[in-house]
Amino acid sequence: MRSEAIVVGGGIAGAMTALALARRNIKTTLVDRWEPGHSRASSTDYNRVIRSIHGRDEFYTRWARESRERWLEMQAETGQRLYYECGALVLATAGHCDWEDATAETFQKLGVPFHRFSPNEIAVRFPQFDPHDISYGLYEPEAGMIMAHRAVITTIDLFKKAGGTVIRGRVETDRTERPMLEGKPLEADVIVITTGAWMGDMFPRTVKPISSVVGVNVLYTSTPDGSTAFDQENMPCWIDHGQGSFGLPSTEGSGVKAAVVIPDTIDLDQDERLIRRQTLNRTRSYIKKRLPGLVGEKVVDSKFNQIVLTPDTHFIVDRHPEHENVLLAGGCSGHLFKHGPVFGDFVAGVGVKDFGTADRFRIAGRKKLSPKESPSGR
Q1: DSSP assignment, residue 377?
Q2: In what order do the strands lie in the sheet with 187-193?
Q3: N or C, which end of the chain is more exposed by having fewer CB within 10 Å?
Q4: Which Gene3D superfamilies does the record associate with it (predicted)?
């Protein structure tokens, strides 16, 4: 097949890249193995946190701020509710606050609105949380959540309206890692690979050595009968590094989303997307410790999400070393979705050679960073 641009993978990275290419008046085809928004994708689930909190990393902080504006613009353009600005609260564990301290310094430097709350202030301002082992809370009011599934579907719809084509098919690679569809090489001026967790298996020499796939079990817990305390109007999203957890308030009746991040394994093509039973006890133990008002409430939904981790938790945006027209884009490291609009526009620009990629996104030279240096705090 021949097209000016082909994007392989229809999650948020691929959808936003395809839309950005189509809006540059480039004939673009988007290929995915399943229906856009399918439940196997890394971009699945109801919602994702959007926040500018990235430690000392100014690059991602600026990207997150710009992405927020673009999500709001897309929401206004489409009339779809894509963003809830409920704020984001980072709970800084006593004695382990390097990432949170660095974030506060970055916010001050860049002029990002934030508040620093003592444990007593957290208890008053956000009584849903028990802050007994917290040093302080870092609250970003201009943050919240993106409705993930709806955002992917809305982006695909905009792509089609911009003249883009969506087709179903499984793209694989040959021995040289050249992309193939139905046994024939893909042909286009630029081929962008945004297949998320599948990218490592597609490119075993190029991507697999710098990426790993982990599963994250997510539970949704019912809000208390007759109470609005845990709804997004009254409760922020939160990150609790000391407990290896994060969560989002109930939105559109979802229940409270909480994940205790204990990396799990997954066979992308063989495993069913069901949470592990032992996760239930781990999450309930966390809720008992941090969200006592939810003790005894029932789990009403669950999701099994997968993320791709790079050693430094930076994204991948780089050309294949043997195929100049193949651009690899992904490496979510758990924080790509919120950057979607800016990421897609950037990848499109690199793809058509309007500019080069950033050094941090190159395949070569990857190394693990300390939590203090990491943009994700990992």
Answers
A1: -
A2: 165-168, 28-32, 2-8, 187-193, 326-330, 316-319
A3: N
A4: D-Amino Acid Oxidase, subunit A, domain 2 (3.30.9.10), FAD/NAD(P)-binding domain (3.50.50.60)
Sequence-distant contacts of 269-275: CB under 8 A, at least 24 apart? 273/39, 273/40, 273/303, 273/304, 274/302, 274/304, 275/217, 275/218, 275/219, 275/302, 275/303, 275/304
- Give the tokens for residue 262: 């204990």
**Residue 354 reports pLDDT greater than 70:** yes
Q: Residue 317 corresponds to which amino acid?
A: V
SS3 231: strand
CB 129 within 8 A of CB 91: yes
Task: Express each pLDDT in 132-147 by its tens digit.
Answer: 999 999 999 999 999 9
Task: Give residue 323's pLDDT.
Answer: 97
> Do 190 and 325 meet the contact criterion of CB atoms below 8 Å apart?
yes
Count of positions (residues) in the chain = 378
Q: Give the β-pairing of 212-221 and 256-260.
A: antiparallel
Distance of CA 188 to the CA centre of its chain: 28
Q: Return the residue matching tokens 């930076």.
A: 314
Helix axes 58-78 and 148-161, enclosed angle (nearest 10): 70
Cα(30)–Cα(278) distance, rounded to whole angstroms? 38
Q: From 282, 261, 248, select the one nearest 215 (Cα to Cα).
A: 261
Chain segment 212-260, per-residue pLDDT in tens: 998 888 899 999 999 999 999 999 999 998 888 999 999 999 999 998 8
Q: Write out the two tokens for 167.
A: 């087709």
What is the set of domains in the chain, with CATH numbers? Answer: 2-44+148-210+311-361 (3.50.50.60), 212-307 (3.30.9.10)
Those residues whose C-beta lies under 8 Å from the C-beta of residue 76, and which sit 6 or more positions away, are: none
Residues 139-156: what's their mean pLDDT? 97
